[in-house]
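WARN no homologs supplied; continuing
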Amino acid sequence: AAAAAKEKDDDEDLEEEDEDEDDDDSKEDSKESKIGGGSKKSPAQQAGLLLIVYLLMGALVYGLNRDKFSGIETHPLVDAIYFCIVTMSTIGYGDITPLTSSTKLFVCAFVLVGFGFIDILLTSVLNYVLDQQEKSILADIHHHNLFLVDLRKGRMRIRLKVALALFVVILCIGIGSLFLFFVERLSFIDSLYLSALSVTTVGYGDRAFSTLSGRLFASVWLLLSTLAVARAFLFLVEARIDKRHRTLAKWVLQRDITPQDLFAANINNNNFITKSEYVIYKLKEMGKIAEHDISQICNQFNKLDPNNMGRITLPDLFQNHH
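OK structure emitted
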């Protein structure tokens, strides 16, 4: 219990150290949204429109070359969309395959270009869903103290986002399993098996959607679930990286300064280090700024300080603007 309490206190300390940085990020995001304007389409909308056009193009090519594809047929339009979705999501059940050299080349180009559209679209959709869930949870617990939620910053900690993302994964697998069990008439194990392999884009090819209703469902379900699962695993990786960065930052800030640190931080080559030198050295040590970044900032400062006085005055600013 004592170890758990200590770990909790350490996490809270690390959260507080990045608080100002997170506030600055939120202000920057708000600023960018204002600059973008309300009439400009979001990346999700743009990717969605391009994806629809791209799917229609793929379906048209498939429809004009149906005799050059092998597989079980249900309805021409449904089969075309189903094939395009299965191809772009890189599942590859193998129930519909190209036969000729021209259709194989088409599939190669189609999957390489189309997967980019799906990635942008579904990443944006999943972020939107998680943001809505976050707002709902924050509204419900506004008057309560919950460890997973930082009310001052007004956003969930990353571990709760991971939990929500994993919930989406379980939900996608569950919906797919129920549909396969009741509609495709597969056994419970086979339904769970095909659903899990589909959302993880494995697709051995021993099971697939064979009915008209099944392929209609798969065209939507696969499109939403495959990238949702991929995004959930990215959240897990992000959680580990975030924890590592916070631990490193805490270690850097708490360790005692040594004579070697004094010499390394002494940019002006004198017998002491200033506050700005100390800040720069610690930021470099935490990996938040590199020597190249400092050089660029110094070059910009030198341009604003033509007299090499080591400071920027109001007349210098007017001189540079005119």
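The first strand starts at residue 69 and ends at 71.
OK
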